[in-house]
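ugh ok so i messed up the first submission bc i forgot one of the chains. this is the corrected input, ALL of the components this time, i swear. 980 residues overall. if the numbers dont match what u have on ur side tell me asap before i send this to the collaborators (the ones from the other lab, u know who)
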Amino acid sequence: MPNDAPTPRITIWNEFWYERNVPEVARHYPEGIHALLAQRFRRDGFPVRTATLDEAQHGLTKEVLDKTDVLVWWAHKRHDDVSDEVVARVQSQVHSGMGLVMLHSGHFSKVFRALMGTTCTLNWRVDGQRERIWVIAPDHPIAAGLPPHFELQQEEAYGEFFDIPPPDQLVLMSWFKGGEVFRSGCCFTRGHGRIFYFRPGHETFPTFHDGNVQRVIVNAARWAAPTVTERKVPASVLVEPLEAI
Amino acid sequence: MPNDAPTPRITIWNEFWYERNVPEVARHYPEGIHALLAQRFRRDGFPVRTATLDEAQHGLTKEVLDKTDVLVWWAHKRHDDVSDEVVARVQSQVHSGMGLVMLHSGHFSKVFRALMGTTCTLNWRVDGQRERIWVIAPDHPIAAGLPPHFELQQEEAYGEFFDIPPPDQLVLMSWFKGGEVFRSGCCFTRGHGRIFYFRPGHETFPTFHDGNVQRVIVNAARWAAPTVTERKVPASVLVEPLEAI
Amino acid sequence: MPNDAPTPRITIWNEFWYERNVPEVARHYPEGIHALLAQRFRRDGFPVRTATLDEAQHGLTKEVLDKTDVLVWWAHKRHDDVSDEVVARVQSQVHSGMGLVMLHSGHFSKVFRALMGTTCTLNWRVDGQRERIWVIAPDHPIAAGLPPHFELQQEEAYGEFFDIPPPDQLVLMSWFKGGEVFRSGCCFTRGHGRIFYFRPGHETFPTFHDGNVQRVIVNAARWAAPTVTERKVPASVLVEPLEAI
Amino acid sequence: MPNDAPTPRITIWNEFWYERNVPEVARHYPEGIHALLAQRFRRDGFPVRTATLDEAQHGLTKEVLDKTDVLVWWAHKRHDDVSDEVVARVQSQVHSGMGLVMLHSGHFSKVFRALMGTTCTLNWRVDGQRERIWVIAPDHPIAAGLPPHFELQQEEAYGEFFDIPPPDQLVLMSWFKGGEVFRSGCCFTRGHGRIFYFRPGHETFPTFHDGNVQRVIVNAARWAAPTVTERKVPASVLVEPLEAI
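and heres the new structure output, hopefully the right one now
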């Protein structure tokens, strides 16, 4: 029964390059975006670990992933430095039921593109103007507790066409002062796993300090958590007929 | 305008191994499954070419694909012999708008799995029992001219769980005498391209001689044909604001 | 947060005609289908009430519905005896966020047809042969705890084409020994409310005693429960611009 | 075969009140919105008729609808003056396969609400500011020939939450200068019929003179046209088993 389910175990993965190399980013996230998000999840009682690009196997060993119910992923600059072996491992874990919350520029990560099967390209502009995020599916669990819309005073702009498969559910849409719209909160299913893409989070702005942004990420993690305890990648099976033939 | 569109140019790709190596299969398809389907498309006035695994680049050079509006794909035994370069080329052409009609065991081709992002596994059994295909979306263009259901007296059985993303549209469902159901006609969008997966077509049975099966494949090719004349893979673009900010 | 949500308050509505008039049905459900389902929900700790057609306002007063998080509905013979006023009231409660689990012949109730906007017709045959229900979306919360498929040895057969809008999510599909398939577990959203249609449950068979059937109904009620505490029918609002224009 | 299909017969229905009573509206549409749209369809060779509210049976007799492949509907002020009989007739024709293109304030017509099953409410503001319409599904037939986005310099603003069921396909999204976003081009299926909702078209602005707006409406009519020649409302049928039982 969903309500008796144990609290999902979260792993937050971060490229963790900008925070160590760009003072403007370090000012917002002195210990890294992952550390801030980990703190937020812990506040709600989730067991959390973090992992970053420069760790061995990027911190995403089989042991870590086997104990991860939902993986939260932020990356931007170094997508190509993620090894294909780890990409395949993460994809396989999603197939077996691990949830995935993909943040912002993670749309262009190898992991996300492999799961979508598309280029995941989009239009963009770092102008630090206003983004307004509208709730399109107010009763989706990921929208629980959100107002009808909320604002981020400074963000990078993303614009359509966003090359993703039509999402199973569209929860959030963004309006940008510069004139764009964007599908900002998108649900997907791949194998046994649930995936949520969430648009905001450019590193030069304090986006992840925003209460509504945090709420979306926490809600998404709850939604994406597996409903089974034993995960298994789907497999082809030769079966006997069920009816006498 | 759709109605003025030129007739789509079809390329039919076939592994073409069974027909040359297994007498039982050669009996049904002496010149290959691709040849039979090509004949059917030509009857309706489509420009058609064929390509097979053992040709250079599997017959799928950039030149051929650039002149292909819809690629029809049959394969079963030698998925691993398709070069990754050709797989990437086909995937990219789909992203740019080329239609793809994937037949039967093609669910397990590298091309299909790359476009779906899942394992594409399923349950199966070659027992040559009856399959009944039901039309679930009678007004979808791919169902045009079909009866409410039609039968194939002998087929391989496929059973759920079929590990694909939830299709954009589900057009056909199969009933099998042995007790299974299966999502047999599934529409997907990837990039600018439309994809139709169609279940039947085990090589040891005369499935592709069936009039309803042929009709589905022809309808699917029309539906999957690009709506634009100049195809282009979606790309990330740095954009200026449309509104003064 | 979903996990802290109070257990949904269930109201089970039953036409309650067959059980009082047809001995064969009374044998399976001596106190009515609603009573059996109420018992099952209580076992899991849900607050439950029941209501039946012959009560004043069919037992579905505004007061009752205001305190109902999820309404479970069984009906077959007397759809036309449900007053339009109560139909409008139930529809409006769904718009405000009340969940609805519609069982079996309820597909043809005024309530369901008003919410779907279609005829909700289908093919049918009461032959008491085997139904096998397949899980198509194994990780949907409504499928939690179900095996890949389960059987009902005796049931009425329903067949496609089932005239409903394409469901938001398709969770279950039925196979019938007589040769049909059917979309047996379908999710819809209407206003703030979630609706689940679940096929089995012909009154002359002991279907609702089946553990898997009960599990689906309980899971569906959890899934359909509102995510907000204050329900409100969506309304048209004249709004001021958010940006200076 | 879709390509051999005869050109769909269009009926354009208009409330035709504003044009006769409000000079500002008459200036844009001296002969009525229906007359302008009829002219546009005729230019592309469609057989077109028009019908308006004040005609007997609102001009929508059974005879007219039986010869209508796609009904285009504009209304705003007098939804309640449409008789329930005609509403039921139109709904039934959609169920039998007639296409419906619902324009602008038609979201609040009895016909649309009956087909959606929801309140169809939304936020709104007549400020005559800029609307920018983005193409979200560039390869959908309804987007054929459109640029990535187009502008209407003066329009009424509509804002989410738009209380409709999640559309089968979302083709267009609007950005408004005042800060809103809106699902502006939505595809639905009801029975055998296809429905397209298209947002723009406030009567005090010259929206229907815009070439892109006209193109969307013509594309939508082609897309919504039935694929069969003999239309029939879906019906419940008692069926014999297909397999020996």
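quick check: The interface with chain A takes residues 91, 95, 108, 114-119, 121-125, 127, 129, 157, 159, 161, 163, 165-166, 168, 177-180, 188-191, 233-243, 245 of chain B (CB under 8 Å). that seems consistent at least. Helices of chain B lie at 18-21, 23-28, 33-43, 62-66, 84-96, 110-116, 211-224.
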